Amino acid sequence: MLKLLKTHFGFDQFRPLQEEIIRCLLGKRDVLALMPTGGGKSLCYQLPALMLPGLTLVISPLISLMKDQVDALKANGISAAFINSSLSRGEIAAIQKDALQGKTKILYAAPERLSLSEFQAFLQKVKVSLIAIDESHCISEWGHDFRPDYLNLKTLREIFPETPVMALTATATEQVREDIVQQLGLDRGKTFISSFNRPNLSYTVLPKKDSYGQLLEILREHRDDSAIIYCLSRKDTENLAADLRTEGFKALPYHAGLESEERRINQEKFIRDEVQIIAATIAFGMGIDKPDVRLVIHYHLPKSVEGYYQETGRAGRDGIPSRCILFYSSADAGKQQFFIKQIEDDLERKNAFRKLDQMVEYCELATCRRHYLLSYFGEDYREESCGGCDICLSPLVEFDATIISQKIMSAVIRTGQRFGMNYVLDVLLGSKNKYIFERSHHQLSVYGIVDDFSKDDLRRITGQLLSRNLLEKSGDEFPVLALTESGMSFLKERQEIRLPRPGSTARLAAPEAADDEYDRALFEKLRLRRKQLADAQGLPPFVVFGDLALRQMALYLPQSEENFARISGVGEQKLKQYGKVFMEIIETYAQENNLPEKTIPVKRSDRSRRVKREGSTYQETKILLLRKMSLEDMAAARGLVIGTILTHIEKLAAAGEDLDIGYLRPPAEKFARITAAFQQSGGTALIPVKEMLGEEFSFEELRIARLFL
Ligand code: ADP
Ligand code: ZN
Predict the structure, then answer these.
(1) pLDDT of 609 over the 60 cut
(2) 83-128 pLDDT, tens per residue?
């Protein structure tokens, strides 16, 4: 199995559960596989397909994806085909003929095919050894994506009672899971559930202040990377894409209201790396399988944690560090509440409120975001720090919150434990809200007694009191605050409490910079060549080689077939087809720059080890810092760009490393001007400050100064 894995897919190791699932299928048992997006589900049927006689039939609802999947298999030297409504009768007949002659190993078909008698007759004649059902949650009416066509799948069981079935999905609650098992008759099979943690994704929530400026800054940092920006409305996507184009970005909108042809073209351009940014409504995503999306930004508040997890899941399928960033303001939550109030169905409305409330909770967390996401899906994540969310990455500054907590809790009591957070905070802040006056709450001793915290801050502190079980919330639509027993004793016994300072955590979680030492200039050359080769064959670039493969090439500079074959994603077919072309580029570059070829470790570390290994790249930078080298010299010594060195320094500082970087500090006069500009901007974003200061200051100087500030 390992040999086939390397020969056909170019990988050295299985990902978690892949091997177990494959063994189960080869033992003729059914499988239900629940793995997150990017977990490597497809390989679980593609590899056994090569080992089994006959055909593997794959049912997939996404016609737009079939071609890409088949192209990717062919590029790996595996005979695959698809049948769907985009093909002519003649084409379909030819594909079926090939399959009947045993020339095809993997055949993709859409579920609606199964109801056609012609197709059924074809299936009766062909030898099917394995059936894979992609997006299998579509069979459940409980799921969010029910497709009646999926009910046809039951007939497969009748036609092929002996053939093992593998059902795949990335989303399934327990109810949906049971439904899949029952509907597909998988009761004798085995269910595999992998962790939903995506270690290569980092999560950040940014306050929605100057969000456009912040967005530009982030996008500039990710110049050539693919990014999806989710917006609330169709209009927003169009406006944002247009604005970004005037800033010099390649950006297009995507939403359900576009002509289907325009939608197709925009999607195609994104997949082919002709456009880096798609501003989309949540309609975008189901039909794309681009492995190298580095950035998923939510420009508005998602409606539920499930939805958010799904959308962010589209980042970094290839395992390379990628960022998920959400812009949040409590006003956004208010806007959505307004819409939810219009829902007429009682149950549905309550549900929507509850889901939104959870989403708000996520945004206002003062504890690990990954932990929250995973426990939302019932997973117990125990790492002290996830190392990849803004909360875990920023040093927590605590403050004595005893008095403010007492004030909040007293206000809850004085108003009779009958009101929601918003109202209670309004009372504390002395709001002129007429309901407060109608109820004479302006005469309470707690009215207007807070003037040292903003409402957003108070919201976060109250969130902390809730998560520490001093306060509790009840009711869905209009959750009411009340004191718990421990809250009562907290007040009575005059206990003290320390909480994270609100606002101290709004930092951008940088992606874990694994394999960061690769040569950027060479990578660009390889990337360009990849695009040319892909265009010539009408393929998406990632089908030729993934980013990970290119990064490894630019790191190890392989110049012999033997070494080149060790790159992740290089199997026999790709070695034969592309090896020479890429090695030529590498060789020329290595000679021009006098760089040595490096040995590629045969067993590559898995994802989690890779993250840990990273300490070393920072430690190397730290050693250079100890020698008091200039930024330029450090960059040259390490073969990195200055920006990366700065990122290392920022990370080291954030991790609380004791650094002596005083020698890098800009001269006093400049430093004073930068300080003033940051103060005026009221944030930590670079762009607004750069705009104030102009050409005289470099981004590097600003970043350095920011560290001291
Ligand atoms: P899913 O269908 O679960 O979203 P895919 O099957 O598309 O995930 O796989 C995601 C990515 O992981 C693909 O780029 C695939 O080539 C890669 N991959 C799958 N298995 C392995 C493996 N054993 N080693 C390295 N990469 C793998
Ligand atoms: Zn975390």
Answers:
(1) no
(2) 998 899 999 999 999 999 999 999 999 999 988 989 999 999 999 9
Q: How far is the CA of 333 from the centre of ligand 2 (A)?
A: 23
**Are the C-beta atoms of residues 35 and 177 closer than 8 Å to each other?**
no
CA distance 173 to 355: 15
CA distance linking residue 699 with residue 588, whole number of Å: 33
* Spatial separation of the C-alpha atoms in residues 500 and 397, rounded to whole Å: 6
Return the ligand number nearest the Cα of 19. 1
In this predicted structure, the answer to whether residue 423 has a pLDDT above a threshold of 70 is: yes
Instruction: Determine which of 370-379, 560-569, 654-663 has the lowest per-residue pLDDT on average.
Output: 654-663
Nearest residue (CA) to ligand 1, atom 9 = 40
> Can you tell me the distance from the alpha carbon of 616 to that of 606, in angstroms, rounded to the nearest whole number?
16
**Residues with Cβ < 8 Å from 143, sequence gap 6 or more?**
137, 171, 172, 173, 176, 179
Long-range contacts for 562-569 (Cβ within 8 Å, ≥24 apart)?
Answer: 563/597, 563/599, 563/600, 566/600, 566/602, 567/10, 567/600, 568/10, 568/11, 568/12, 568/604, 569/9, 569/10, 569/11, 569/545
The alpha carbon of 362 and the centre of ligand 2 are apart by a number of angstroms equal to: 12
State the closest ligand 1 atom to the C-alpha of 42, by its place in the atom list counted from 1. Answer: 6
pLDDT in tens, 462-494: 988 988 889 998 877 778 999 999 999 999 999
Q: Which residues, by Cβ under 5 Å, contact ligand 2, an ion?
A: 368, 370, 386, 389, 392
- Per the CB < 8 A criterion, the answer to whether 59 and 153 are in contact is yes
59 φ/ψ angles, rounded to the nearest 5 degrees? -95, 125
**Sequence-ordered alpha helix ranges (H) in 429-546:** 434-438, 455-467, 485-492, 520-537, 541-544
- Ligand 2: centre distance to CA 384 (Å): 8
Per DSSP bridges, beta strands 480-483 and 471-474 are: antiparallel
Neighbours of 582 (CB within 10 A): 26
Query: What spacing in Å lies between the alpha carbon of 229 and ligand 2's midpoint?
Result: 22
C-alpha distances in Å from residue 178, one per residue of 16, 66, 172, 305, 552: 23, 27, 9, 22, 42
Structure confidence by residue, pLDDT tens digits, 185-201: 998 889 998 888 999 99
Q: Which residues form ligand 1's pocket by a CB distance below 6 Å?
A: 11, 13-15, 18, 35, 37-43, 291, 317-318, 546
Whether the CB-CB separation of 70 and 81 falls below 8 Å is answered with yes
Q: What is the pLDDT of residues 492-522, one digit of tens each?
A: 999 999 887 765 544 566 554 555 688 889 9
| Confidence (pTM) | 0.72
How does pLDDT run across 203-250, given as a tens digit for each residue? 999 988 889 999 999 998 888 899 999 998 999 999 999 999 999 999
Q: Name which of 247, 307, 253, 305 is nearest 277 in CA terms.
A: 253
DSSP assignment letter at 203: E
Query: Residue whose CA is closest, atom 25 of ligand 1?
Result: 11
Ligand 1 centroid to 44 CA: how many Å?
9
In the chain, pLDDT over 70 holds for what percent of residues?
94
Q: Where are the alpha helices (DSSP H) in 114-233?
A: 117-125, 154-159, 174-184, 211-221
pLDDT for the residue numbered 510: 56
> What is d(CA 564, CA 570) in angstroms, rounded to the nearest whole number?
8
Domains of the chain (ranges; CATH) run 2-193 (3.40.50.300), 201-393 (3.40.50.300), 398-500 (1.10.10.10), 515-593 (1.10.150.80), 606-706 (1.10.10.1390)
Could you write out the DSSP letters of every residue in 487-498?
HHHHHHTT---E
Pick the ligand that lies closest to the CA of residue 367. Answer: 2
Paired tokens of 479: 């959750």
Is pLDDT larger for residue 524 or for residue 514?
Answer: 524
Average pLDDT over every residue of 375-384:
83
